[in-house]
Protein 1
Amino acid sequence: MENRPIILLIDDDAAIRRLCSRMLQRLGFDLVEAETGAKGLALATEHNESLSAILLDMNLPDGPGQNVARKISELPEPPPVIFFTGTATTEQTVDENGQAHYFLKKPFTKASLEDVLRKVEVPIPTAST
Amino acid sequence: MPVALLLTLDPGLERELDELWPGDVLLTLDSEEAVRRAVETLEDDGVLLVDTSCFPPPEVPGFLPICISGDPAAGLPFLERPLRRQELLSWISFLEHGPARKASGGPSPILPSPFAEFQRDTVHDLNNQLTTLQGNLILLQEENNDPALEDMAVAAQHAIRLLQWMEWLGAGEFPAAHFHVPEFLTQLLPLFDRLKNRHTEFTLQSTSPEIFLTLDPQKFLSLLLVLTHAVPGPPRNCSFALDQTGNSVRLNCSWTGQTSLPELPGSVERWTQALRATLDQGPGSWTLMFS
């Protein structure tokens, strides 16, 4: 059985994690979850080379998501990070190290999630029509 | 006006501050290192605006920090979004000339209003609930044609729109904005039926998809609400027509049923002048012209 690509989700809201799990499974991904930045960073380190992308909430109980993103960027094979936000629009910005940052505004749908995954050039196993 | 450095990863915040900032120099930087390098090249002291949803406030000699948006840092000034020009200027003036500069221990400890923080957290949590609701409804609709799901999905979409309006109206003061008028009106129309006890159907026709205005959206919204509320009846139908000729934007409202001229409060003339618009009235219609 072919291995499905893996996405790491870091969000403290359990219902959001379950929703993303359903959406990503329908898109053909497997999901690894964490409810804090510290646990998310540990999972990112453990699964580093096999992660297609990371979905990261900007407001985590143990600190801003951007702190986690910075540490993730120091991994040997950092995957693209997509920030969940309630304020920014779905856009991209590039920092001084050339690393792109993408935002996905809540509330989001399966279609907008798929759209931003395409923007970070993650192949969608079961692309919607 | 002092030099301002903005530390953020959010392009939306950069745009928002760009519209408000009255001074000549506003540098947007995306790391603490970049801030320190920029400070080394600047001759004057200034203000460091820190997006604390992205970064903890760094200590930078000569630059007094103001926290924006995320978690407030104990002892530092804090601004919530959407930003208010007067509040921003007040903090800058306070930091430049107030006790913060004179005290040896740094800025006075000032905490954000607990009510404002509660509102912010409530909106954030409500946004998460609506995300869960709408997202799961759409997934269910992929497998099930039950019309009840369609009703629920429409209600969820409407709730999201209402939340956006709550966030906007709750701010109390809107920044001047360059906004897309057809989209603005399309989002507003479903709320207008409250002005007419839900008896009226509102529609919009726009001759061009790309009509923009640069003006105070709060005054524009206030004017629209008053003019729409003044429509006699309530009529069964009320139609908005939006078109642009050259630099002039024309918004017409016409209705069926009673055609008597609406009675308008005195504030309409003030708002119209403040928006640099003209208002024409006729039987069964009113028209705003912006140039």
Protein 2
Amino acid sequence: MFVRIILLCILTLTACMGPAWLFVVGAVGYAFAWNGLELLLLTVIIDGYFGGMSELPLYTLGIAGCLLLARLLRPYLSIYNQQ
Amino acid sequence: MKANSRRTSQSKYYVQLTVVTALALLVLFFLPRVVYLAAATVMLPVNATKTWFLESSASLPQFLRDRAALLSDLESLKQQVAAQGGDQFTVQMLAKENAELRELMGDNGDDRILAGIIGRPNTLPYDMLMLDQGSVDGVVAGAPVYIGKRTVIGFVQSVSERTSLVTLITSPSFKSTVYVLGPDIYTSATGIGGGQLRVGVPQGFVVKEGDLVILPAVTSGVYGAVTYVEDVPSQPEQYAYVSPKIPLSSLRLVAVGVTPIHEASFAEALENVTTELTDIFTVPIPPEYRASSTLPVATTTTIGLPAATATDPTGSASSDTTG
């Protein structure tokens, strides 16, 4: 739980300050590790602040897709099935 | 029992994910201003800290900005100054910096706000710039952002108290009207990110590398030159890729106008292009180089201007005679 909170704080900082690629990599890892819906809150902040001229909220849609994919792949990924 | 429990838990998660995603999208589409204000509140301490680390002359940020490298640069600059006749070199450097800053601030009477760049496209989530000036400094949304004397690279998309975000004209899918010197046509351009504009030129017009591109919607000067031409004969359009005169990655300072850009009519655009075409050959002569005080400040060479041709997005061309 403590690691998850620390990582979420780091992701929040990278979401605010960049670099964007570091946030994306961290968010994907976080999504696969914990399937946390709080990632959507972070991406709403990014799309709300930076994405004013964009037609679609790319980060929100992307992370929603990533969370769904992580959940669907869960039975097939060995890391989740280790005893 | 355990399998049922797992399936129920999965379904519950999917429902939660769908509901939260739908809520997020609803809020983003219908309440964008609320989301922006909330995000700005979250960003405020982060941006303030970032600006302090990057720009402050306080001891701690300077130390954290690699003090050793700064001292080393200082030593080598001191040696250069000593070797080249310190006073003269210093004066030349200061004069150059002064001229650069004057150019950024505009010498034609326009008020501008000098702003430092604290966020670039490679660090921000979208293709934009973050500036260290905000509403308390007089920045307003919709104001043009300049590099050099008159080259517009974007406009202020949103303003918070201490920072502002700039949408670049090279942002992906951003459309603008340009005038291309060479084929001498008005045509449309689309941003593709990374500081690049893609200009569509109908087949039949000769466009080549080095042709200058002007943004006529604002008094923006020459935006850049064509660096690459993609020409597939079977396609109705050829594409010219344009980079700005000054690479975005080397920008440190920009100037922000104090009034928002207004939508320009074709007559205004035509006037901007004509002005730019004549100004291209104008060089402001400093007083010490003028032979006589009766000489004008700038000399102008007037060349018979070619007829400008406008193309609409469908590729059909119409001619307009100027000058």
